[in-house]
């Protein structure tokens, strides 16, 4: 989420927010955040984390299966971090809907793994879209938007044995014209 630390706070939508780490991070920086996830358990923990962080008044959580429903409204930031298309999840269609929810002048951030981590052994069949593929998937909605970032990035993540390993992710950041 540090990819958007330069943005002035506004209304944010975090898709597949899990236990709310990014939503809390944004709220701490002044954003009003809607976090959404299919998992009621994750959302319950996310609400607890927001309350513990003292930002419960700036974050709301709503349960959605994004294949069936989508939060109402428009947002200055819509983020989809590690919302992958394992199984038959229609990620590209969900990302286009996400782009449609970006307000004029707002930002869409899509972060995903570039592949399996080197230490992962149980690798099911999966395709990890490149930044260029993500841009192409978004294109019907984001034609004319400014591409601020579309690249691979490396980060350190703890391996199962607790030692740090290097993981490669894809980051796509686009801005809708004002
Ligand atoms: C790998 S986690 C990422 C969590 C968080 N965004 C992060 O960056 O750490 C993927 C999240 O997407 C959620 N998810 C999976 N399928 C979903 C769906 N159909 N609708 C909404 N959320 C979904 C999962 O419950 C999970 O919390």
TrEMBL record:
GO terms for molecular function: methyltransferase activity. Residues 154-178 are annotated as: Disordered. Keywords: Methyltransferase, S-adenosyl-L-methionine, Transferase. Gene3D superfamilies: Vaccinia Virus protein VP39 (3.40.50.150). Residues 13-106 form the Methyltransferase domain. One of its GO terms (biological process) is methylation. Residues 156-169 have a biased composition (Polar residues). Signal peptide: none annotated. The keyword Hydrolase does not apply. InterPro entries: Methyltransf_25, SAM-dependent_MTases_sf. The keyword S-adenosyl-L-methionine applies. PANTHER family: METHYLTRANSFERASE, UBIQUINONE BIOSYNTHESIS O-METHYLTRANSFERASE, MITOCHONDRIAL. This is Methyltransferase.
